[in-house]
Structure formats: structure tokens, C-alpha cells
Automatic annotation (TrEMBL):
Residues 1-23 form the signal peptide. PANTHER family: INNER MEMBRANE PROTEIN YBCI-RELATED. It holds the Pfam family YdjM. The keyword Signal applies. InterPro entries: YdjM-like (IPR007404). Keywords: Signal. It comes from Swaminathania salitolerans. The lineage of its organism: Bacteria, Pseudomonadati, Pseudomonadota, Alphaproteobacteria, Acetobacterales. This is Metal-dependent hydrolase. The keyword Signal applies.
Length: 196
């Protein structure tokens, strides 16, 4: 995928995660997701981020090549475990979690556009998904549009489901409160009346 497509997909994935209340909605979260969606391509100086950090991207390209180690799902997974261990699970609901979602979205976005080492270190095979779409081609935009449509449906579903859940929870709380009130009233009736 092109850098622009990765940016759009990464931000859309973070927005969907926000709609599901996995990530706290914030501008920082969106920026972190956008950054995460560009980081895996730091292994090539032709990418948006790699062209700005040429020494790093040249070193990585020489060391492991494009779409290899930085394109493994193990990287965001290991980072998530590290963040949860060091900073607590709550940290994953903030910009750090958004960064990891953006990162993972990049790997998934590269699967139909040539593939990558998604399962490294378990496998050094380039894993690719059908339908194959050349980077920057019309097909890539179709894949992107399809993914965005799916994310829109998921976000809509999440946003519609949450008020229902809240209402359900509110009803439960009201029910418990009514039950307690009834129990107090019954207890009050059973108290011996004071004689005057
Ligand atoms: Zn890539």
C-alpha cells in the first residue's frame, strides 16, 4: 500500500477502536495511530517516514530488506506485552494502544498488496492475501474502499450498540435500587412499634 493509503486505513482502524471504547477518544490517539501506520515502512527510504530518516531506513534495508522484520505482527504484539507489563494495561487504552493498532493495520494492509513477513519469526515466507493488488493501483484503492466500508459498518454498529448497553445497565441499576427499597420498606413494617 502507498503511505497515504496506510495513513487513511490506520486512522480509520483507530476510529473504529475508539467507537468500540477500546481506545479513549483523543487527538493524540489519532496522531499516534497515523504514526504507527507509517512506522513499518521505515525499512525503505522510498516510504513517507523512511525518506525523512534515511540513515535508519538504509541501515534496516541493508540488514533485513523491505517488508520483513518490521512487518511482523510479532512487533506490535511484543510491544503491547511490554507496555502492559511496564505501564499497566490502562496504557493500552491511550495513544500507545492507538499506535499499535496503526502499526498492525499497516501489516494487514500490505497482505493484499504483495504480502510481507507477517508471521516472522515463526515463518520467513512472504504471506499474501487474495485479491492481489499492485501498490498504488486502482485495485489497491478498491481494497482500501472495501476495508473502509467494513470499518464504517463496525463503527456504526458499535455506536448504536453502546447506548443500548447503557440503557440495559441503567435498567439493572434501577431494578436493584427498587428491590433494596422494597426490602427496607418490609423491614420497616416488621419493626416493633414503640409504645407511648
Ligand atoms: Zn509496508
Amino acid at each position: 500500500m502507498t503511505g497515504r493509503s496506510h495513513l487513511v486505513l490506520g486512522v480509520a482502524c483507530v476510529l473504529t477502536a475508539m467507537s468500540a471504547a477500546w481506545i479513549a477518544p483523543s487527538f493524540e490517539g489519532l496522531c499516534a495511530g497515523a504514526l504507527g501506520s507509517l512506522v513499518p515502512d521505515i525499512d525503505t527510504e522510498r516510504s513517507m517516514l523512511g525518506s525523512r530518516l534515511k540513515p535508519v531506513s538504509r541501515l534496516l534495508a541493508r540488514w533485513c530488506g523491505h517488508r520483513t522484520v518490521t512487518h511482523s505482527l510479532f512487533v506490535p504484539f511484543a510491544l503491547a506485552v511490554l507496555i502492559a507489563t511496564e505501564l499497566g494495561q490502562k496504557a493500552l487504552a491511550g495513544p500507545l494502544g492507538a499506535f499499535l493498532i496503526g502499526y498492525a493495520s499497516h501489516i494487514l494492509g500490505d497482505l493484499p498488496t504483495g504480502g510481507c513477513w507477517a508471521l516472522y519469526p515463526l515463518s520467513r515466507n512472504r504471506i499474501a492475501f487474495w485479491p492481489y493488488a499492485k501498490v498504488g493501483s486502482f485495485r489497491e484503492y478498491l481494497v482500501l474502499l472495501g476495508s473502509l466500508a467494513l470499518l464504517c459498518v463496525l463503527s456504526y454498529h458499535n455506536l448504536c450498540a453502546q447506548p443500548g448497553e447503557t440503557a440495559h445497565r441503567a435498567k439493572s441499576v434501577r431494578f436493584i435500587a427498587q428491590e433494596r427499597l422494597r426490602a427496607y420498606e418490609q423491614a420497616d413494617h416488621q419493626l416493633p412499634r414503640s409504645e407511648t
